[in-house]
Amino acid sequence: MNIIQQILKMQWSDYLDILVVAYLIYKLLPLLRTPHIMRLARTVIALVLIAWITSAAKLYTINWLLNQFLAVGLLAFVVLFQPELRRMLDHLGNVKISKFFGMPRQVQEMDAVITQTVRACEAMSRKKVGALIVFARDQRLEEYFKTGTAIDAQVAAQLGRHNYFKNSPLHDGAMIIRDGRIAAAGCVLPLSNNENLAPELGTRHRAGVGMSEATDAVVVIVSEENGSNSVAAGGMLKRFLKVETLDKLLRQELHTVDSQEESVNFPAQVLKKLTGKAKEDDGYDKK
């Protein structure tokens, strides 16, 4: 009854306040969903839960020790999680305003980019030409541009011939596609430290997984050894993809399929974000 009475006493400003907070949560959660930041969030939640449990269970000694730790914990927290905090701030700082406020994207243009990329990967796969193609999403990836050559070119099916032929100076680096255009090539990506990756994976695949761990980018890898196509996203690697599967997966990861639904179904999407978005993990190689 107290809750109902409180709701009845609420003014229009209270409802507006709740809607604004809900909208911010809805927009911030997907922006912060990277492996490093999620690990940081789990640590914070675990500390809060332990403090609450020890207090409720009247475990005074443990609760006192935990409170003493939390008293100086902020400084220790900043020191221990400095890389994660830097990535989080860099992530938020590089998010485009139009993306944050839900302005429509050029879906048709991205569809064309995906089509051309898949055709290029199909051609490179047949000739066993290794390639590493990064699709920037919310993060702008400016720091990785400095390791390569900044360019501004249209994505075409011939991109493999121009940038990934054997004697090309950009052959061993990664190509970054941002805003529907090739923004940089020959870029150096961070290698994954995941010890569970398959031992036969080479530097190109580990760089693709490492990039997907450090950022929210989607990375396409074409193997030079066997010509197989793979996609790394969120720290997971999906290997040996057929052309049709590669096309479908890129459209799902880059949200060209359901972008219109997201803009018109805000309440349902908020609930979906809060409860955790279910992802299909079948076929993902976590080893």
Enter the CATH topology name of the largest domain: YojJ-like (1
Q: Which spans of ≥5 residues are poorly predicted at pLDDT below 50?
A: 258-267, 277-287
Order of helices and strands: HHHHHHHHEHEHEEHEEEHHHE
Q: Give the number of helices.
A: 14
CATH class of the largest domain: Alpha Beta
Distance between the termini: 52 Å
User: On the 0-100 scale, what is the average pLDDT?
Assistant: 77
Overall structural class, as computed from helix and strand content, comes to alpha+beta
Could you name the CATH homologous superfamily of the largest domain? DNA integrity scanning protein, DisA, N-terminal domain
Radius of gyration: 22 Å
Q: Total domains, how many?
A: 2
Strand order of the largest sheet: 2-4-3-1-5-6-7-8
Tell the overall outline.
elongated
Based on DSSP secondary structure assignment, what is the total number of beta strands? 8
CATH second-level architecture of the largest domain = 3-Layer(aba) Sandwich
Q: Give the fraction of residues assigned to helices.
A: 40-55%
Largest sheet geometry: 8 strands, mixed
How would you describe this structure to a colleague?
With 287 residues, this protein is of the alpha+beta class. It has 2 domains: 2-100, no CATH class; 107-285, YojJ-like (1, CATH 3.40.1700.10. 54% of the residues lie in helices and 14% in strands. An 8-stranded mixed sheet has the order 2-4-3-1-5-6-7-8, with helices on both faces. A hairpin with a 2-residue loop joins strand 6 (229-233) and strand 7. Helix 2 crosses helix 14, helix 3 (35-56) packs across helix 4 (60-71) and helix 8 (107-127) runs antiparallel to helix 12 (243-253). The protein starts with a helix and ends with a strand. Residues 258-267 and 277-287 have low confidence and may be disordered.
